[in-house]
């Protein structure tokens, strides 16, 4: 029996075909370009973030319908606190606004909300919004919508190493038992598969302290499209590129 396929007509590349069988299990996205999107339109940066929130909704819906199992979105890094207070305050309100309006649809679509990052350092209203969404969707077993919020990969690795050292000192773990699989178990993503595909929008080609351990063998897709302009069409183009690649994980195909 032939596998179901999706077809998307694009302006630059023509028909793009992706196979259901080759859908990445875990897609991670560095959502970049909100500020530049706003600047191009002579709008304040917060207008770009607000527009970007609409893209989150569209891409979450599309990923769920395409059969993606985990969608991790880099929403706010540990370095983003350095931005102007007005912008940070606005960004801290976005999860509450997004989740309050989108939560009924997430529940209906069987999406489970999760988060990686230091939630304790977020404003109380942001914490409540995220925790409420996680509680309301805890029993859902469809797409996992995983927000990286107040997340930094180096901080995550430092915390993991400290936990390993403590367990070695306490006798719960021996030095000989420390392997790459051991380290993975101490990370915030220990219960998730590692990303198959990383997408970064806006034309930048760097990881920006995002999932440095987990992305070791991930396929990368960079696009000049700014995040607020990123659509289901662009998601399908990224998946089509992924499906043409041969993943060897350091070996031979």
Descriptive tags:
253 residues, 8 strands, 7 helices, globular, alpha/beta
How is this structure best described in words?
By secondary structure, the chain is of the alpha/beta class. It has a single domain (23-242), classed as 3-Layer(aba) Sandwich (Undecaprenyl pyrophosphate synthetase), CATH 3.40.1180. The chain contains seven helices and eight strands; from the N terminus they run βββααβαβαβααββα. It has helices at 34-40, 45-66, 85-108, 124-136, 153-169, 180-185, 232-243; strands spanning 5-10, 14-19, 26-30, 70-77, 112-116, 144-151, 197-200, 219-222. The protein has a six-stranded parallel beta sheet with strand order 5-6-4-3-7-8, with helices on both faces. The protein has a two-stranded antiparallel ribbon with strand order 1-2. A hairpin with a 3-residue loop joins strand 1 (5-10) and strand 2 (14-19). The chain is globular.
Please describe the topology of this protein.
Blueprint: E1 5-10, E2 14-19, E3 26-30, H1 34-40, H2 45-66, E4 70-77, H3 85-108, E5 112-116, H4 124-136, E6 144-151, H5 153-169, H6 180-185, E7 197-200, E8 219-222, H7 232-243
Parallel strand pairs: 3-4, 3-7, 4-6, 5-6, 7-8
Antiparallel strand pairs: 1-2
Helix pairs in contact: 1-2, 2-3, 3-4
């Amino acid at each position: 029996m032939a596998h179901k396929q999706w077809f998307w007509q694009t302006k630059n590349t023509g028909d793009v075909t992706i196979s259901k069988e080759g859908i990445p299990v875990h897609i991670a996205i560095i959502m970049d370009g909100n500020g530049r999107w706003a600047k191009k339109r002579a709008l304040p940066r917060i207008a770009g973030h607000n527009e970007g929130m609409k893209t989150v909704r569209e891409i979450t819906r599309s990923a769920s319908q395409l059969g993606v199992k985990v969608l991790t979105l880099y929403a706010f890094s540990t370095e983003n606190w350095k931005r102007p207070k007005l912008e940070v305050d606005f960004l801290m309100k976005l999860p509450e606004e997004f989740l309050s309006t989108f939560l009924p649809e997430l529940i209906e679509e069987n999406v489970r909300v999760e988060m990686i990052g230091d939630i304790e350092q977020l404003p109380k209203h942001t914490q409540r919004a995220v925790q409420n969404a996680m509680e309301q969707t805890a029993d859902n077993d469809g797409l996992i919508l995983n927000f990286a919020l107040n997340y930094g990969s180096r901080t995550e690795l430092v915390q993991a190493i400290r936990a390993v050292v403590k367990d070695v000192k306490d006798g719960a773990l021996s030095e000989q038992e420390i392997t790459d699989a051991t380290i993975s178990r101490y990370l915030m993503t220990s219960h998730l598969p590692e990303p198959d595909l990383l997408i970064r929008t806006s034309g930048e080609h760097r990881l920006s302290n995002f999932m440095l351990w987990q992305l070791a063998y991930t396929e990368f897709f960079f696009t000049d499209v700014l995040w607020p302009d990123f659509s289901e069409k662009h998601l399908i183009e990224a998946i089509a590129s992924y499906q043409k690649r041969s993943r060897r994980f350091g070996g031979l195909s």
